[in-house]
Design goal:
This protein is mainly beta and 141 residues long. The protein has a single domain, classed as Immunoglobulin-like (Sandwich). It contains one helix and ten strands; from the N terminus they run αββββββββββ. It has a five-stranded mixed β-sheet with strand order 2-1-4-8-6, with no helix packed on it. The protein has a five-stranded mixed β-sheet with strand order 3-10-9-5-7, with no helix packed on it. Strand 1 and strand 2 form a beta hairpin. The radius of gyration is 19 Å and the shape is globular. Bound molecules: copper (II) ion (CU). Copper (II) ion binds next to loops.
Amino acid sequence: MKSLLTASLLVGATLVLCRDARPTHRSPSTSEGVQTIEMIAKKYEFEPATIRVKQGTRVQLKIKATDHAHGFRINDVAEGKEMSGKPGLVFASAQDCTKIEEGKTETVEFVAQTPGTYQFRCCVHCGWHHRAMKGELIIEP
Ligand SMILES: [Cu+2]
């Protein structure tokens, strides 16, 4: 009985491994679940300040402002691609500045469609070094 249990556990583990090992061909238009990333916004930084996701991922950023009201705004065009004006992030709803009240958490959701580096920053004035409060999202192919 015990060996049967071990065997089925092994099969289960193998299945999980196989699923992970399978080459990933992600189409930009299809979402494969949601990747939730928890972030902290505080004077004067985002934690983490660098986020890495795989192309095609539906990303949900849950950002908590701990010490003051802050904001979150991300460029939807990758760094160096500004001239093309082609958005590489596809938002669930229209985006400008997402304001986060002190002690509250706001969610920003998008599909990471095009590989590249996307700058984000605080867009609610929060003090002296407000302008230094920024980070980047990296979409890996
Ligand atoms: Cu600020």
